[in-house]
Structure to design on (742 residues):
């Protein structure tokens, strides 16, 4: 019924000439990078026969109106293509070969229908694809209310209906008016006597939804709850009730576990009133449900609690097991839930000691998989699936000191661990059929983009299902190497080295490092492949932070990592550049106040003044305060508790120490790091007589030209190339200048 089709995605005509020339030269260009496809596994049928794949290129995300950020009615035009694959034969067909706005692709319980939302005329419609006929139909909802842009799509167990959410009458007008007041006034009032920041009041509107059950055959709509902020909607296995979390904002809060109450409820679909299962609390409970949907477990302060829906309260299953870890470690054993067994008779929990099976009836605990004592060298493991017969627990595996990755399974009865697949390839997104006979996953050789693969239970005959980027078949991409090095504190760290295209042993090459936090796994990386196409090494070194002193991390690690490469005589010590985006851009500015090691530097959408940054982005409300105090910035204190730390971690305060030529790229519509923050550094360095160029993309967002139009994307990268090329003394013509002048 499905026609065999070759997975070739149309490339826009504007890129064709560029693509041909680039392939002749053997280079990846920014215009070509816009059309590199990435596939994601949207959903797999329970029998493993069908997989729905969404396919997207960066070009599909280049028309975002960043000025609309915070508008509850705005749906970002992130388009995708939808591919359906029959995994046994490999036959495939595009449900939509051209870009469309579709989301929530979900197979029905009997595997015969694929439900999803499709944007038509500015509103989402419910669509259902029928496997048997190959036809798609639109389900016309018998209501005047629109489907919410953030609606879930949950099939009822019998496949006759779906759970989704709607917008109340008049919601759009209210939300548009609230956004308009905040962005165009004529008067905007902020008053601390209000419970919420004004932008919080606007943002909260986006979460107001009306849960409803919709018949997929008739389109009849039954609203089951009034308008509210409702999350985690799910059917019980019987289909006669739903459970959900009610979210009740109380006030704008700056601390964790404050300002919002969460309540878990059960609603029987017979007109009954909702029943509270977990009372409202500012501490959020994250339920881990069993298959039947009549019980869940959750972790709290090192314990695992069980809540059965028919019980009056939760039971602490692990209190009796909270003994000290060892004679040398007086810390109490701490447990967290991982997964229920298929029959609900056991719960896999994790502790400092290892993986345990926890009996939900009597709290009995059995260690089934001891973990290595040394957490630093412990491999990374993540449970993916539990076989229906209850015997095998499948988990991903990644070594901590090398690219040894794959899938293993634990026979918890014998304690034996069997390797399903383990090699240097990069494996992601495992999905299993109910019987375990079919496994769908994404895989890359570590250098090229992921493809979708299928394998049998024993991985004896893996089969590639997609060929998403045939245009790259003859195009050389960067090769990668994992680099181990020590920072100045003696910590072992890792970085990923990307080799120049056409690398010749014995030559020394320029290097451009991209810095952020931790890097380990390779895989196709757009940034690094564009860098290496210029004939340079690309490098992503890792750093280790100390709370309260995060600004030291990059100085302690990045030069040490680069020194190792210089010592190998593959990198030209006089031609080293550094750049970063967002937190990485912030890192670049801090780093060049402490060293003049680099020939040139670039800051993409990174803050330079952490003090002004606190209130510099009102549309994300209190996030920047939390980021500085307890989040990514790692200051560990408020501005008024430790003002000197905020000064020490603001590059603007030490602009006079910068001797490295600096390129700054920003987006006028950046909701995260407004262009005004980088503007401070431009004016400071100009005042100090330093060399600096500031490029502000008027249609750009967070990521500057990379988060703008296709034309700006190309411009962004060409400016980056020319900037480093000039200071590597490889200039080829004049570098671009702003249309607004120098």
């Amino acid at each position: 019924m499905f026609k065999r089709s070759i997975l070739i995605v149309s490339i826009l005509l504007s890129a064709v000439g560029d693509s041909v020339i680039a392939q002749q030269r053997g280079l990846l260009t920014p215009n070509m990078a816009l059309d590199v496809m990435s596939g994601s596994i949207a959903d797999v049928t329970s029998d493993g026969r069908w997989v729905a794949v969404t396919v997207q290129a960066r070009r599909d995300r280049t028309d975002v109106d960043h000025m609309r950020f915070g508008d509850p009615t705005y749906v970002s035009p992130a388009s995708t293509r939808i591919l359906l694959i029959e995994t046994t034969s490999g036959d495939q067909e595009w449900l939509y070969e051209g870009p469309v706005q579709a989301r929530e692709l979900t197979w029905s319980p009997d595997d015969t229908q694929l439900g999803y939302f499709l944007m038509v005329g500015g509103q989402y419609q419910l669509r259902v694809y029928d496997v048997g006929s190959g036809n798609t139909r639109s389900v016309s909802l018998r209501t005047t209310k629109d489907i919410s842009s953030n609606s879930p799509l949950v099939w009822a167990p019998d496949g006759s209906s779906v759970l989704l959410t709607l917008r109340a009458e008049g919601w759009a007008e209210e939300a548009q008016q609230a956004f308009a007041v905040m962005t165009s006034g004529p008067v905007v009032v902020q008053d601390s006597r209000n419970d919420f920041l004004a932008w919080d009041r606007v943002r909260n509107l986006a979460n107001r939804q009306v849960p409803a059950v919709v018949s997929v055959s008739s389109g009849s709509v039954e609203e089951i709850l009034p308008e509210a902020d409702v999350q985690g909607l799910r059917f019980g296995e019987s289909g006669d009730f739903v459970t959900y979390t009610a979210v009740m904002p109380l006030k704008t809060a700056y601390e964790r576990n404050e300002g919002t109450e969460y309540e878990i409820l059960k609603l029987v679909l017979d007109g009954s009133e909702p029943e509270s299962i977990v009372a409202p609390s500012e501490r959020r409970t994250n339920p881990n449900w069993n298959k039947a949907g009549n019980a869940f477990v959750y972790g709290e302060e090192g314990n695992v609690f069980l809540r059965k829906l028919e019980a009056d309260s939760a039971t602490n299953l692990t209190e009796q097991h909270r003994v000290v870890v060892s004679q040398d470690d007086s810390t109490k054993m701490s447990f967290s839930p991982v997964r229920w067994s298929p029959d609900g008779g056991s719960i896999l929990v994790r502790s400092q000691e290892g993986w345990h099976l926890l009996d939900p009836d009597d709290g009995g605990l059995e260690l089934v998989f001891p973990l290595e004592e040394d957490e630093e060298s412990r491999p990374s493991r993540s449970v993916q699936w539990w076989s229906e017969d209850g015997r095998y627990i499948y988990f991903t595996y990644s070594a901590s000191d090398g690219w040894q990755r794959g899938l293993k399974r634990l026979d918890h009865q014998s304690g034996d661990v069997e390797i399903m697949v383990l090699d240097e390839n990069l494996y992601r997104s495992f999905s299993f059929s109910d019987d375990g006979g079919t496994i769908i996953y994404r895989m890359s050789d570590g250098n090229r983009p992921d493809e979708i693969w299928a394998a049998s239970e024993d991985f004896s005959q893996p089969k590639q299902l997609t060929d998403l980027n045939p245009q790259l078949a003859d195009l050389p991409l960067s090769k990668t190497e994992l680099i181990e090095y020590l920072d100045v504190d003696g910590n072992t760290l890792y970085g990923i080295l990307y080799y120049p295209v056409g690398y010749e042993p014995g030559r020394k090459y320029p290097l451009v490092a991209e810095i952020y936090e931790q890097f380990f796994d390779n895989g196709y990386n757009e940034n690094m492949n564009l860098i290496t196409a210029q004939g340079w090494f690309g490098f992503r070194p890792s750093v280790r932070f100390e709370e309260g002193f995060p600004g030291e991390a990059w100085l302690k690690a990045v030069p040490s990592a680069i020194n190792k490469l210089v010592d190998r005589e593959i990198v030209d010590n006089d031609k080293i550049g550094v750049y970063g985006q967002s937190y990485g851009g912030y890192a670049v500015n801090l780093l060049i106040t402490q060293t003049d090691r680099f020939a040139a530097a670039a800051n993409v959408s990174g803050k330079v003044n952490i003090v002004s940054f606190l209130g510099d982005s009102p549309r994300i409300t209190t996030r920047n305060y939390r980021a500085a105090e307890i989040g990514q910035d790692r200051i560990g204190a408020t501005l008024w508790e430790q003002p000197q730390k905020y000064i020490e971690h603001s590059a603007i305060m030490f602009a006079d120490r910068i001797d490295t030529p600096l390129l700054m790229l920003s987006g006028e519509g950046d909701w995260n790091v407004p262009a005004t923050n980088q503007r401070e550094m431009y004016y400071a360095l100009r005042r100090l007589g330093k060399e600096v160029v500031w490029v502000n993309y008027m249609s750009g967002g967070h990521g500057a030209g990379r988060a703008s139009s296709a034309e700006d994307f190309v411009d962004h990268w060409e400016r980056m190339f020319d900037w480093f090329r000039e200071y590597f003394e490889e200039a080829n013509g004049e570098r671009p200048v702003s249309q607004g002048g120098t």
About this structure: The two ends are 61 Å apart (CA to CA). The domain at 476-727 is CATH 3.40.50.1820 (Rossmann fold). The CA atoms of residues 64 and 77 lie 6 Å apart. The chain has a mean pLDDT of 93.
